[in-house]
Amino acid sequence: MDYVAALDVGGTTMKGGLVARDGTVHDLRRRPTPRAEGPERVIAAISAFAADLARPRAGIRPLAVGLAVPGLVTATHAVFSAAFGWRDVPVAAFTEGVDLPVALGHDVRSAGEAEMAFGSGGDDVLYLPIGTGIAGALVLSKALYGGAGGWAGQIGHIPVRPGGAACGCGGRGCLAAYASGGAMAARYGVDGAEEVARRAGEGDARAAEVWDEAVAALALALTTYTLLLDPAAIVIGGGVAQAGGTLLVPLRERMAGLLAFRRPPPIRTSRLGAVAGVMGAGLLGWRAL
Amino acid sequence: MDYVAALDVGGTTMKGGLVARDGTVHDLRRRPTPRAEGPERVIAAISAFAADLARPRAGIRPLAVGLAVPGLVTATHAVFSAAFGWRDVPVAAFTEGVDLPVALGHDVRSAGEAEMAFGSGGDDVLYLPIGTGIAGALVLSKALYGGAGGWAGQIGHIPVRPGGAACGCGGRGCLAAYASGGAMAARYGVDGAEEVARRAGEGDARAAEVWDEAVAALALALTTYTLLLDPAAIVIGGGVAQAGGTLLVPLRERMAGLLAFRRPPPIRTSRLGAVAGVMGAGLLGWRAL
User: According to the model, what pLDDT value does residue B261 have?
Assistant: First the structure.
């Protein structure tokens, strides 16, 4: 079977693998993203991982490389990332020594494409992975919508509490400053948002407060999204979606309270789970051919 | 020349006229909308105006009627309006005794279509008339976007100050509760928003405060819109747009301050002015044929 090498760069973990045309992921591997060590080290780590994935092994010779990164991304450059603090990184810097066709893309939009192709689908859907950061893939009239300049979907940075908590993007009160996995973990002082969810469930008052503020911020942002774009459904992915009902039940309740004259759309978690990003990077790789 | 009768129902004024295929408006007339007298009286006033417009006169026999109303609207019903407090009004109730093809549509989306057809155009544009109320027409990839159920564009009811001022929609802290012409006039205690703008310009402190809060609310909403949808331009119409630079200059400034990592899109006022709504209703009429 033919494969492409696929690399999905998250704020905490990079996931790589070989992806077949039908979306099957083979040889899935994870490496930590050295975010705290600065953009140069992250770029070097991506480049090393991409080179390893592109190398032939066990009889499989990948045909291309698909690379998905967060932030503002064009086909040729990673323009900006609040998580990594880089600006205008050319695709070649991420794939030094790789002698295959390479396609660069936006992590969340690529994962959204995978969701459309292999997951739950839908004509008008917001696909919203919540991991270390938050961004959305907007499926409008059956197609991914990138906006006038390809920068649509920055829902993580809409101001839900103007003047509030500082965000990595330089703004204040952004959704991501409350509801991203990274922000929740940092606010409570643990390594991951799942720990916040677990302790909130055990009755820890500070954990419950952090979780509630995250849900409140998310409800506000999704209420705004719903009023602007009237989606048929909202699909939440990423690590934070693994909280399931602990997230969805209070989120639905708050949205119903905020929406005065219409119902919230159905909100569910992604069927593809954490592998959506790699599948999306795989779609990029196939497009490079 | 052939004409259709066109009626644009605003929260304060109804505008009617005859509209040719090329958008030319003939015999423009205005009548007050009896909003304070309740939904039944508004429906009766619309019906009487529509019947008058549909009647042959001066050698012109209109071919159809286009009717544009605010709120949630389908082709057959005015489903809901916060301004008028009606629910599920069938199109026939608006056009009693009219013996011509009739098309019902959304006031702002129709005006947005007129803006696309006869105004400034653009592939990815938010067209935002600010009159008694606020709603937006979303032009995405050259087409009006209505969402999964036709309810997209309710930007007037996104929560910019959660728990804040009461809005006619039943919610609190909506954009329209601060930045609509109706809200500004009511908060300052005059008949129209132009009076608020004028007095703010003359140094009246309370008028300046009301105006500033409106601009701040609008800047927040348009920042959110920009981050979500990356428009090429935002075109502001309706009565409040007549304030020109008094609105646009502080609005651009505030948006630039709120957007941490990208520039605001160009923001300008509509070229069609107050007649955009009638031209849009005319497009509905032509479609009825």
Answer: 86
